[in-house]
Structure formats: structure tokens, C-alpha cells
Amino acid sequence: xxxxxxxxxxxxxxxxxxxxxxxxxxxxxxxxxxxxxxxxxxxxxxxxxxxxxxxxxxxxxxxxxxxxxxxxxxxxxxxxxxxxxxxxxxxxxxxxxxxxxxxxxxxxxxxxxxxxxxxx
Length: 120
What we know:
Blueprint: H1 2-25, H2 30-36, H3 40-69, H4 74-96, H5 100-119
């Protein structure tokens, strides 16, 4: 079960690195605009906000990688903390911005968190 948990944590970290790239560097290009259906003007106006969100997603990814690399008990605790942050951020985003975030962010985080706890 530990291998499954580590793979899921790694996948959530990769997801959040992808979100970082999308929000920080591709927001005004087709992949970023297509995410929310923004026209170029709206994408340009919201780019600073998206970059800020992207940076936070990078911090989540960095924390998850730290949790994978750190020895226990620190690694376990760090994974639980950052996965909990992912789930809370996903639920908040789903209720305030877009319901798809529940499935794109909160669900993968919750599955990884369940696996980490079950592997303990």
C-alpha cells in the first residue's frame, strides 16, 4: 500500500506543478485561456491573479515532494498536511470558482490522503 500511496502523492505533486505552469506561464496562451474560456483581454486582466494562484500550487507540489523525500515520521506528517491543504483548497475552489475543481484537485488529493493514511 505504501507504493500506491507514494505514486498517488507523486501524481498529485505533478498535477500541481502542471497547474503552476498553466497559471503562471500559459495563462494568456491558448491552454490557459481555454481552461476558463477567457478571451485574450480577460486573460490579460486576470494574469496577475492566476500567477499568484500558480505560485501557491507550486508550494503545494514542493511540500508533497518534500513529504516523499523526507524520512518518517516527518515525511508522513508533511504528506498528510499538504494533502489536507490540497483537499481544502479544492473544496474551496469548487464552492467559490468552478465545480470542476472538486474533481480535478480535491478528489485526487483525497484519494492520495486516504492511501497515505491506509499505508500507515
